[in-house]
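Changelog note: in this version the structure field was regenerated for every chain. One regenerated record is shown below for reference.
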Amino acid sequence: MSSKKNVDITKTLQDAENSRKQKYYRKNVGFFKLLEKIKLWPARSGVLHGIKSIKITSNTAEITTFCGESFLVWNSRNSRASRWLRNKLSFSACGKCKIPDWKIEKYTATMMTQKWGSGL
């Protein structure tokens, strides 16, 4: 099977600054609430994956992505994934997950601020 290459989202990040409406979320919101709302997972390689399902059990969650990966995640506001989601440190979107362009644009237009925004 041939796998699609990762899609570059750096141009989308620049275009999102000029987009129509920005959403604001609190920066220090709970990690699982943020994952349930955004439905995106940043891998260590800088690839952004789409989340198919999240099963939360107390302090851990089992995440399944659209490309078939499944893993266990701890609830931490200071984790790598949480920081990468808030600061938008992902560089490309997964080709297998087929994240729609509107979702990437919405994510890049979303602002995370300390004192302003929705608490989810």
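Spot check on this record: DSSP finds four helices and eight strands in the chain. The helical segments are 10-16, 31-38, 80-87, 101-109.
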